[in-house]
Amino acid sequence: MKLLYTIIATLVVLFIITFSLANTTEVPIGYYGFIDVSVETYLLIFISFGVGVILAGFMGIVERLRLARELKKLKKEVKKLRKRGETEQLPDVERSEPAQETEAEGDAGKWNR
Fold this sequence. Notes:
Layout: H1 2-22, E1 26-31, E2 35-40, H2 41-84, H3 103-111
């Protein structure tokens, strides 16, 4: 497996190097007189890609925090219901597997937040 990762990493590095060498044309970037710079094409593409990766990662972190907060709230609610004795049918929250939702339920849930 280690050899496979090394080969894939080498191929990615070779791609980056050859892509950079093939796209050295400078591109002017301007924004209403505030910004007026020239950047090589490969650098512009790599920076855009990096910013996209960072933003996607940030959005993933935000979603994970939201889900953790919701899980905490639901566990608290189950605990409160167990205390009142109204939950004979509720599974043990600490050890149970997450419920699998159907595709229709998943799509509906996305739009109802």
